[in-house]
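target protein:
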Amino acid sequence: MSRWSRGGAYFDGSTVAFDVEVPEDAQSAILVLRDSSGTLRNKVSLVPGSARYLWDGTDLSGATLPEGLYQAEVELYQDGVLTETLPAQSYMRIDEVRRSEEGFVLTLQGGWQIGASEIAALRHPAS
């Protein structure tokens, strides 16, 4: 089972699909990717009206990054000024679901834990 939610993805050497919402009227948009420590790893220009971006796991220099968790955001600009930051969305494998005092907690691929309320959709990956 995999979950669809905002903000991050696990790179395992395979292409990662990010759902992005770039308004048609955006002058420019940039997909910003950071590793689990918050270090900037890549910035990719997006076309206004874009709905999906396939990331190959490369950094700013084009080198392939190591396996791990990466955060993704879309920065929107007007006249060179950052006007809005939106989380990119992606599917990640669910390794465990357990109940805690705060509700259900999902452990995702790579050990990332999130609350069930952060999930937008679930799917069974194609075999």
Remarks:
- The chain has no helices and twelve strands.
- The chain has two domains: 2-89, 92-123.
- The domain at 2-89 is CATH 2.60.40.4070 (Immunoglobulin-like).
